[in-house]
Amino acid sequence: MSSSVLPDREQLLTLAHEVGLDAAALVRRERPEGRVAVAATKSSPIDVVTEVDRASEDLVRDRILAARPDDGFVGEEGADVAGTSGVDWVVDPIDGTVNFVYGIPAYAVSIAARVTDATGERVVAGFVVNIASGERWGAVLDGGAWRWDGDRRVPLRAPEPPPLSQALVGTGFNYVREVREHQAAAAARLLPHVRDIRRIGSAALDLCALAEGRLDAYVEQGLHPWDLAAGGLVAREAGVLVEGLDGPPDLRLVMAAHPALAGEYFDLVRTCGF
């Protein structure tokens, strides 16, 4: 695909918003009372999948490809489709599945449109909805980030952060035991240098929280594209720096902070051994 025929970013976001709200409604409707049964596991016995994850991904994939049949699809639960348009949809049908299983109200549908052309690969539209609370966030590349208040878009700009010693840091932990042990040790080294650490359980919601100013910084290892794509765009368009260890954020490391804090914080993350 050439840049001259790129799809309209707002149209992509509108589709993500519509489909994401329908997927969130499905998840709310299908969630039984009490603790949800686990249908399968992935990377380890504690990395779980539910039947509702699968149903949500099926809905998102079917709705998006019905509207844009030439696009590709990359989903957490593996229902990938190769496209020919240069647009791929990167989807987490329930980001925060363990929270969903236990009924902790922090789990989200995350939908991003990613374009690949001669200039490279980039996320151009992203939508995140907290299924439990109904909070919604969106962003388009070079067009800003916002949350919705009803039908009204409220622009987001990450606020000036406090000093590093007073920063509230979001993080998460891998499901593979050896990796978790490494991350726990790094987090223990980080903790004395900041106000505190929060482990909310959804990377997409953590990144939107950065855009809102509910967190001051973030670090996590093991994030896949579907964990990062939509929330990462919301954070970046709100003015947050989102980087990896030595370049773009990736499976090895994602760290994020306001530019006024980023240099000092990123150095600390590296020093702590993440």
Structure in words:
The chain is an alpha+beta fold and 274 residues long. It is built from seven helices and 14 strands. It folds into two domains: 153 residues, Fructose-1,6-Bisphosphatase, subunit A, domain 1 (Fructose-1,6-Bisphosphatase, Chain A, domain 1), CATH 3.30.540; 109 residues, D-Maltodextrin-Binding Protein, domain 2 (3-Layer(aba) Sandwich). Helix 1 runs antiparallel to helix 2 and helix 5 runs parallel beside helix 6. It is globular, with a radius of gyration of 18 Å.
Secondary-structure arrangement, i.e. CATH architecture of the largest domain: 2-Layer Sandwich
* CATH C-level name of the largest domain: Alpha Beta
Mean model confidence by pLDDT? 93
Separation, N- and C-terminal Cα atoms: 37 Å
Structural class by sheet pairing and helices: alpha+beta
Q: How many beta-strand elements?
A: 14
Helix content: 25-40%
- DSSP summary: helix tally: 7
- The tally of domains stands at 2
What fold name goes in the CATH topology slot of the largest domain? Answer: Fructose-1,6-Bisphosphatase, Chain A, domain 1
Categorize the overall geometry. Answer: globular
Strand-and-helix sequence, N→C?
Answer: HEEHEEHEEEEEEHEHEHEEH
